[in-house]
Specification:
By secondary structure, the chain is mainly α. The protein has a single domain, classed as Up-down Bundle (Sodium/glucose cotransporter), CATH 1.20.1730.10. Helix 13 packs across helix 14. The longest helix has about 45 residues. The relative contact order is 0.17.
Length: about 450
């Protein structure tokens, strides 16, 4: 159980975030609400990308992996660092194309290039994955509150969801950016403080620093998901499209990559120290248990604030993106659909997210499934980058077959890191089948035209 000072710190954090969201909504234009009027500077982009990508599920899952495999799990961050740089090459082109054609989302890209049907299929697929990611953040926050404060899981879900709903409903994307800046500072500073405190009694053990101890069965999926995940991350697409210039976009991604790697090393160090100090705890809750047993009053509250900052900065982005996709890309398109409709979408997503979080069970299982599903979209996006003239039928079949293969793999082998490989293979196989389908359809069309 946490002490009074820890409760005060947590309460102060929730109140501060709510107030920032409220004040960001004052004198706000519709452009600010929808996509911050596409004026994000370098440090705004750095803070919002970093805080959004450092999610509760990633922190908890990564610490669990380091707890089991040692520093070898750092390949997840190494792969992501290279993935950011690779995605930047694509994002520069995306930014210019998006400014020209007024893109707001990943589905707009597919809709403009390949038609309404492809845009809707991709929109539905992305909605499901992002909504599941939003649900995971609510679960993570609720479990932390439940295990450390005794607050019921359902009430904890409602508390976390209610705070996000308050400032997101009022301030929209502009509120997401402003709260992400505060949460970015909280995440970095607090984890640095926690790392220094835990390191004060650190004992070096060479076995913990073997970079290949996890084996290829885990290292290869970690590198794959790191390299390809940015291409299917709608929040990264949104930040790229919202950057005020390609120059700001380049700088923000380079700085973000450096910060992300440093954070990965810091998080690895914290996880290794927890393993050395508490060798017999369950890996899934290693971070929370480590904080509870190793941090004194005050610092425990600071650690919880850092975790909640990671949760909230991810939850608000995923909720906003889910609502945007629902309103803009899935529901029948209507002229004038803007702030009012998006606020309605936020309410729907938040309600469904709370219900889903209360019914869900495993963060790790959902994370592995998400990794596989995102790989399908990443393969499709990279294909459009390499070959712009690819046919819509190829993409549609690629997405659907990739989804079928990934879900089938989950049912057969279970929720494991191999789903990442299944997602990549599923996307590639789907594109192959889609290409053959397109050729057959083209031949039949030519034959029909000839005989007429």
């Amino acid at each position: 159980m946490v002490a009074t000072i820890d409760v005060i710190l947590i309460a102060a954090y929730f109140i501060a975030i709510a107030l920032i969201g409220y004040f960001s909504s004052r004198r706000e234009s519709s452009g600010d609400y929808l996509i911050a009027s596409k004026k994000l500077g370098v440090w705004q982009n750095v803070s919002t990308i970093t805080s959004t990508k450092i999610t509760a599920s990633i922190i908890i899952t990564f610490v669990a992996l380091v707890y089991v495999f040692g520093i070898s799990a750092i390949w997840a961050f190494i792969g992501t660092a290279f993935g950011y740089i690779l995605f930047l090459l694509f994002a520069i082109k995306l930014k210019r194309e998006g400014d020209k054609n007024n893109y707001h989302s990943i589905a707009d890209y597919f809709r403009h290039r390949y038609g309404e049907g492809t845009g809707r299929i991709v929109g539905i697929f992305i909605f499901l994955t992002i909504f599941l990611n939003f649900t995971i953040q609510l679960i993570g926050g609720a479990k932390i509150l439940n295990s450390l404060t005794g607050l019921s899981f359902s009430l904890a879900v409602l508390l976390a969801g209610g705070v996000v709903l308050f400032y997101l409903y009022l301030g929209g994307f502009k509120a997401v950016i402003k709260t992400d800046i505060v949460q970015f500072v909280a995440i970095i500073l607090l984890f640095c403080v926690l790392g220094v405190f835990l390191f004060s009694n650190f004992t070096f053990e060479a076995a913990q620093w073997d970079m290949v101890s996890a084996g290829p069965g885990l290292i290869i999926p970690l590198i794959l998901i790191g390299l390809l995940f940015p291409f299917s991350a709608p929040d990264l697409w949104q930040r790229a499209l919202a950057a005020k210039s390609t120059r700001a976009l380049k700088k923000s991604f380079f700085v973000t990559t450096a910060i992300y790697m440093v954070f990965g090393l810091l998080l690895s160090l914290i996880a290794i120290i927890i393993r050395l100090k508490l060798p017999n705890i369950e890996a899934d809750v290693a971070l929370v248990e480590g904080f509870a047993h190793l941090l004194p009053s005050g610092l425990l509250g600071a650690g919880l604030v850092a975790l909640f900052a990671a949760i909230m900065s991810s939850a608000d982005s995923y909720a906003f993106i889910s609502a945007g996709i629902l309103v803009h890309d899935i529901l029948p398109r209507k002229r004038g659909r803007s702030v009012g409709a998006l606020r309605g979408g936020i309410l729907v997503v938040m309600l469904l997210g709370v219900i889903s979080a209360m019914a869900f069970k495993s963060i790790l299982d959902a994370s592995f499934l998400l990794g596989g599903l995102f790989m399908v979209v990443s393969v499709i996006v990279v294909a459009t980058w390499i070959k712009k003239e690819i046919k819509a039928t190829t993409l549609n079949v690629g997405v659907l077959v990739g989804l079928l293969i990934t879900v089938s793999a989950a049912l057969v082998v279970g929720m494991t890191p191999t789903l990442v490989v299944a997602g990549v293979c599923g996307g590639l196989v789907g594109l192959g089948i889609g290409a053959m389908t397109s050729k057959i359809a083209y031949r039949k069309t030519r034959e029909f035209t000839y005989f007429r």
